[in-house]
Write the structure tokens for this entry.
Amino acid sequence: MSRTFQDENFYLWEAFASTGAFGFPDGPNVVFNCLTDRQLRPRYVEMPGSEPEAERALNSLSERELQELLEKARPLS
């Protein structure tokens, strides 16, 4: 399940949990896709635990916490 939120620049982002089956390392990641500007590369941040745990954590974050997580995210290579 994905979440959408707006950053401080008014860009709309989608965030979702993903695991190694999609080309990521074994641990879960939260992936961020910019819906406002598709030219921006997707970004990700590693999360502890399993994918369901990462998804639960993602769903419990406030919009400000999502923005802070996005600030820590690295470009997807």
In short: The helical segments are 51-60, 63-72.
